[in-house]
């Protein structure tokens, strides 16, 4: 369904430089962006790591007028971008609403502060190493979290792989019985079952640092020379991945800005280019755009097309 709009856009790409602003689309995009621009402590309650990345990117984009202007022009002038954007923002709005409700519940039930929520999210993500959004029995075993906070003192388990303490904890915390601890379940039980200290945020930060050290140690044990050689051999046998293409585009925008910044003039295409120059320097926005480019094929096609248009200006 995207083929015809793409062909039409390619045939009339120069229309971008003269097309009048369609205020209804600009207003819609502005409303959607602001609706999902929320504090980091609210983003922490969104289960999906990918969606949290997108939300951070939207918030970062709103802080730069040139980026917002570029997004608005693309949203107004390219129907496939508009369709994809509407779908993504609709999903993000529902996630933000659920996150707000979850945060309100946590604050009401356990009086958590924003600092404690952020510290807990950091710790939760380190235990949830595959980013699935839930912690199962095996992840708890592998993390050593219970042992580090004293819950395994005097444990009479036959082995660490048959831990009664963890089994009991799963039953206690897993309120919906799906054998996975969600972030909200983790937070509701954390101060009651895991920690006795009054400063929960400090304890969780310490645990996060410990787990990070463990991960660093594992990484140091890898033979980096062998891994690098394998990567070189693999790269020689294949085309650049979507990740690599996106990274190359970000580097290219920096190079273009250093030698032909004047190309970012007051035409609509020039304003898009100015937004690209500005956005390429905002890490959280780059991360969000990269995720969208890699994970959503229609947006990747549009990204490649927009990049070619920007190349025509410089």
Automatic annotation (TrEMBL):
InterPro entries listed in its UniProt record: EF-hand-dom_pair (IPR011992), EF_Hand_1_Ca_BS (IPR018247), EF_hand_dom (IPR002048)
Record bears the keyword Secreted: no
Segments forming domain EF-hand: 161-196
Residues making up the signal peptide according to the UniProt record: 1-15
GO molecular function ontology, one term from the record: calcium ion binding
This protein's UniProt keywords: Calcium, Signal
Name this polypeptide is given: EF-hand domain-containing protein
Coiled coil spans: none
